Amino acid sequence: MQVSQARHGLPLLLVLLFAAPSAPVWAQATPAADLDELRALSEADNDSGPAGIVPALRGFNASIGTSSQHDSSNGWSSIVNPNVAFRANKYFSVDSGVPIYMYIDIYQNIGTTAKPVYAYEPKKGVFGDTSVSFEGDARAWSIDYNGTFTLGLPSGNTDFGLGAGQVTYNFNNHFERNISRFTPDIEMGFGDTSNLVDQRILKSYVAVGPLAHLQAGTSVDLPLHMSFQADAYEELPLAKDLVYSTTGKGKKKVTTSTNIDPVEDNGFITSLDIPLSPHLTMSGFYARSLRDHDDVGGFSLTLLMKAPPRLIDTPR
Q1: What is the C-alpha separation between 240 and 249, in angstroms, rounded?
Q2: Domain residue spans in the chain?
Q3: pLDDT tens digit sequence for 75-126
Q4: 132 in the Ramachandran plot: left (φ > 0), alpha (ψ -120 to 50) or beta?
Q5: Mean pLDDT rounded to a whole number for the chain
Q6: Which pLDDT value is given to residue 193?
Q7: Do 190 and 214 form a contact (C-beta atoms < 8 A)?
Q8: What stretches of 124-241 adopt beta strand conformation (E)?
């Protein structure tokens, strides 16, 4: 199947799934509609990590994640992701986090300006850009909506290609509907950086400029409270002549219409979350960029101060 066919076919399939009769399977003393809404709130932060990072119930939560990932373009990296979150009510929440690269290979000039020699050199204890997300949740006609406005603060090291070098933003619209163990979803949004899209997997570059993004797929509830997510994504420039990227070569690379990387990107993202305890989740993830022929895969552990609510997985 060609990429263009996949892009048009997946959203159409999901629209049909949204129109299908709902068959929720969660059972508890709480009314079914409230359970479905609580379930959606507890899983709303899937783009940046497993369920529970943002609390489903009112109050604070804190988490720390550690991940190891392999990028086919620059090898292995080790990352720590601390996060703090607050939910005001079932409609509004805010959270903030920053990636800290404990180890990463940076492609840079180890020679002189006159005689440059580029090679990979390991770096330790360097920061990425801090993100602050404001999230709104709503439900209508059994469809859950999650709107997220995210600011990127320039704490990342631009010399190593880990930051945008300026304040950035992204606005994302997420729609999903629970159908038995499946929860198909559609996302669409816009912003001025690729760094704030799908933050669970960190790329080896940061594209800055007006960008739109689209994502479609589904999550699947598995036995033992495990969860699998698979999505196809597309990132499109809104003005190619205004997009540039920071790279591991320690400079900003201007991107033109003849340079497709990293102006446009598309591919697939998958993740598997396995709760080891109410407070600890092990995750595996893999992303394939069809346009850049790049693969990123790895695993992570996420420790939550406050465990997400556990819903009973039995028929009503």
Answers
A1: 21
A2: 3-208+281-304
A3: 888 999 999 999 999 899 999 999 999 998 877 766 677 777 777 788 888 8
A4: beta
A5: 78
A6: 84
A7: no
A8: 126-127, 130-140, 143-153, 168-176, 182-193, 206-221, 227-237
Res. 313: pLDDT tops 60: no
Pairs from 216-219 (Cβ < 8 Å, separation ≥ 24): 216/10, 216/11, 216/14, 216/184, 216/185, 216/186, 216/187, 217/10, 217/14, 217/184, 217/185, 217/269, 218/14, 218/17, 218/182, 218/183, 218/184, 218/185, 219/43, 219/46, 219/176, 219/182, 219/183, 219/185
Among residues 301, 294, 41, the alpha carbon closest in space to that of 145 is found at 41
pLDDT given for residue 280 in this prediction: 94
- Cα–Cα distances in angstroms (integers) from residue 12 to residues 105, 131, 141, 307, in the given order: 41, 32, 19, 36
pLDDT of residue 243: 56
Does a cis peptide bond (omega within 30 degrees of 0) precede residue 262? Answer: yes
With a CB cutoff of 8 Å and minimum separation 6, the contacts of 97 are 48, 81, 82, 83, 84, 130, 131
The pLDDT assigned to 13 comes to 40
Computed over its alpha carbons, how large is the radius of gyration of the chain? 20
> For position 36, what pLDDT does the model report?
58
| CA nearest neighbour of 216 among 27, 16, 65 | 16
Structure tokens at 312: 């009973």
Q: How many CA atoms lie within 13 A of 299 on its CB side?
A: 3
